[in-house]
Amino acid sequence: MMYLGICLVIHVSNILICFLEDGLKTLRSLFVVLFSDNSFTITSFLLATFISHKDMIRLSRITKIFSETVLVQKTSSVPSMMRKLSTNTYLSAPSDCILPEPPLPPNEVVLNTLGEPTLASLGLNSYWPSGWYQSLLESLHVHLDLPWWGAIAASTILIRMCMFPIMVRQRRHLAEYTNIIPQVTVLQESLTRARLSGNYVEMMRTSEKMSQLMKNNNLNPLNTFKYVFLQAPIFLGVFTGIRGLVNLPVTSLQTGGTAWFTDLTASDPYCILPFLSMSLLLLTFETGAELRSGQTQLTIRLFSRALPVVGFLFVMNMPSALVWYWTVSNLVSLLQSVILRQRLVRSYLNLPSVRKPPPVIEKKRGFIAGFKECILILC
């Protein structure tokens, strides 16, 4: 009796082991994921030797549920045995087996106290100088309740006042340099004669004298460019900041003008603003005539009078916001130039008075000699 019980237990154990092995083989070969360039496919490989017709129907339903819930991943290779078995049973994946792209975040437009979209919600107010200027404009427009044309004018005056010390230093440097122009002219003529004659010893000696002259007067020719480079990023940031507002465009700018230029995103229909801007620029050049040397006065005068004419052709079709900024900026420059010409102001700011250079009578040269001298000076 005990022997029969032991044999029965062993027989049942063998049956369970065979069933488990067959089940594992069936589940292992059930799903193989294939990847192609065009689409994802899920292929079910069923071992017909272990599964009946009813079980195949049930497994087909399970395959469908599995393909809808499992994320398909790419496999680099598939065993050759599985490729051969793929001809037995093939189940196509449903069209929704690939997960859709995540939705984009909602584009929320934040309104300020005036009921207008904030510049930050429109993608402006960056961390560049142009974004800083846009933040300044928005603060003046929202917190002080200034119209856009008033905010542009107020910000321009504020920036020019902050840059006034740089302008004073630049004027001081130009005045000191203008006072030694006669001595520099004599040395330049000596240097030119030495170049024409090929006397390199005299050239070195004259160059050393000119360097010593600059050193004694605490002057550096590069200081002129230094002041220009200090101001250039500020004006460039203002220009790009206003242009960014206009190009978007900010809707409130279309009604943020005044007088005849109510739309700041459009050009002035009467070209009055471009004319005013270039006229103020010309007057600013004329008020600085005392800082010009006698030898270069004619050239600078021609350049300063031609620049406003050419500039008018460029700015006449630009948005009114930009031209309005240039008009206010040129007006402030003109007022500063007039103020700095006053004797009390010059003494308070320690600006040296500009001495008129003695008239220099130049000898007439032929065309070839003059052309050769110009080439030598440029080289």
TrEMBL record:
Protein name: Membrane insertase YidC/Oxa/ALB C-terminal domain-containing protein
TM region positions: 30-51, 148-168, 224-246, 266-286
An annotated Gene Ontology molecular function: membrane insertase activity
GO cellular component: mitochondrial inner membrane
NCBIfam families per UniProt: yidC_oxa1_cterm
Highest taxon of source: Eukaryota
Compartments in which it is found: Membrane; Mitochondrion inner membrane
Pfam families: 60KD_IMP
Keywords linked to the UniProt accession: Membrane, Mitochondrion, Mitochondrion inner membrane, Transit peptide, Transmembrane, Transmembrane helix
Membrane topology qualifier: Multi-pass membrane protein
CDD domains, sorted: 5TM_Oxa1-like
Family: Belongs to the OXA1/ALB3/YidC family.
Main localization (coarse): membrane
